[in-house]
């Protein structure tokens, strides 16, 4: 799936979750947060200067800078 479409799908899911926050399970919340982390990370990686990419890579693997 293209990153842009994945971002759109994520936005719709987050907006829906915000409208129904009382009915979300812990697993629902975890899945939304996981997908948000992946999509935002990839967008930042794609759009960031080369020097910042290594920082993003380290954040993804939980390594210190």
Label this structure with key terms.
about 60 residues; mainly alpha; about 0% strand; elongated
What does this structure look like?
With about 60 residues, this protein is mainly alpha-helical. It has one domain. About 75% of the residues lie in helices and about 0% in strands. It is built from 3 helices and no strands.
What is shown here, in short?
With 65 residues, the chain is mainly alpha-helical. The N and C termini lie far apart (30 Å). It has helices spanning 3-19, 26-47, 50-60.
Topology of this structure?
Layout: H1 3-19, H2 26-47, H3 50-60
Helix pairs in contact: 1-2, 2-3
Output the number of helix runs.
Answer: 3
- What coarse outline follows from CA principal-axis ratios? elongated
Question: What is the ordering of alpha helices and beta strands?
Answer: HHH
Low-confidence stretches: none
Cα-based radius of gyration, to the nearest Å: 14 Å
Mean pLDDT comes to 86
**Helical fraction:** over 70%
* Number of distinct beta strands: 0
| Structural class by secondary-structure content | mainly alpha
Number of domains: 1
In whole angstroms, how far apart are the ends?
30 Å
Sheet with most strands: none
How much of the residues is beta strand, in percent? under 5%
């Amino acid at each position: 799936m293209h990153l842009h479409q994945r971002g759109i799908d994520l936005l719709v899911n987050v907006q829906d979750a915000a409208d129904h926050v009382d009915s979300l399970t812990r697993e629902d919340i975890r899945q939304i947060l996981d997908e948000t982390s992946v999509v935002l990370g990839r967008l930042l990686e794609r759009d960031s200067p080369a020097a910042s990419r290594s920082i993003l890579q380290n954040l993804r693997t939980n390594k210190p800078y």
